[in-house]
Specification:
Number of helices: 14
Distance between the termini: 75 Å
Bound molecules: adenosine-5'-diphosphate, magnesium ion, zinc ion
Radius of gyration: 29 Å
Helix content: 25-40%
Structural class: alpha+beta
Strand content: 15-25%
Amino acid sequence: MAEVKIGLEVHVQLVSLKTKLFCSCSSDYRDKAPNTNICPVCTGLPGSLPTLNKRAVEEALKVALALNAVPYPVSYFFRKTYFYPDLPKNFQITQYDKAGGYPLAHDGYLKLSNGKIVRIERIHLEEDPGRIVYEGSRATARYSLIDYNRSGIALVEIVTAPDMSAPEEAREFVEKLTSLLADIGIDVRNYEGGLRVDVNVSYEGGERVEVKNVTGASSVEKAISYEIFRQKTLAEKGIKIVRETRAWDEKRRITISSRGKEFEAEYRYMPEPDLPPIRVTEALIEKVKSEIGGSQEERYKELISDGINEEVAKKISSEKQLYDLYLKVKSAEPTLIKVGSNVLANEVSFILKRDGIQQLPVDISGLLEILKHYYELPDHSVIAEYVRKWIKGEKVEIIQAQTNPEAIKEEIYKMLSENYEKIKNLDYNKKFEFLMGLLIRRFGKENKKVLVKELTEVLSEYK
Ligand code: ADP
Ligand code: MG
Ligand code: ZN
């Protein structure tokens, strides 16, 4: 197999923030009229000064810690100079790891399902540029428009080592990263362009080619596949691959040359004089750690020490949303954690996936109601239906049918008509046995007496 190296530079918008990185403009720039979500700072007017959004540092630290990276105690902002219409100051405020600079954090990793460890070299904060809107397609546009609403949005950039060797690995990396981010409250899944990847690909020790601005895990996979194919074809013809930057054309599913790669010197990196260094104290790290609530392993250990069985603990600890809910149940009603953990790992998890729900209700009283009556509820489908009601914000009213002979009768009639074909030829005893089985599943063993009574009554009329 030919050697392929893949490294990613992933840009993540800190969508959990309310404001931009250096000004108080809203971070919610989508769907706004062009150039209305701007101010002198984010459009770089002369005399304006940036002020660092402290919360952005905390959110970026969350990302760093979730990826097992190590924050630098002090890091700096730099100016990266280039000329492009989306960059009104002619420089982007970012962080730099050379010339005395440090990024926010370094040396993390993310593990893939095949056991491979993808090293993360560095994680830094930077501002997003504005957006260029082309008339029709980029290739044929007679003019382009510029919208600065996005200019100054806070981004974290996550730079991996070139540790991946197949397009599928890069895809999985992006997918895992996306769900890990969602776990810590930075859910970019519903934000167009919330996660954008520059992919670097080299073939057989050749120069690396960078494909800019690929959005979404499946496009990352496609862009890399195409690039490997292109480089391989060139290599086979004996044509040398040149270091360059290419663009991903989502419609045609090919990469196209966009410009020769800038050399580092052309960016003329220099320290940003208008912003102080970022200082990350131990106290700040502790604060951020408590917000992200430990690692999956730590969560698993806690569940096990609460007496939750391994399979259920594994499930709950792997999904932050479920784990948070578990903690809520535990603090509201500690006696319900056993039942609660079962419902979380089964019905809640099932409904979340089936209905594509991202946000659980804050109020858990409906869920507690279900848990309290857990043993009275006939089966999983009934529990799931109550859980669905709770998640959808509908009122949860547990119908305690077993204390109500009328409800039992009604259920028996329903069972008779639903199972008519199955039981029509059975003798009385077989029929009785069959229906009794269903009734016990529906109402529980503890109600056997009343069930026998009602069933006998109904069957005597039914004959
Ligand atoms: P630069 O500073 O020139 O941008 P970096 O060291 O920052 O280079 O690397 C940028 C990205 O390129 C990283 O994601 C890295 O993994 C990737 N990369 C580096 N070398 C290679 C290579 N030989 N093949 C593929 N990707 C590479
Ligand atoms: Mg780089
Ligand atoms: Zn602004």
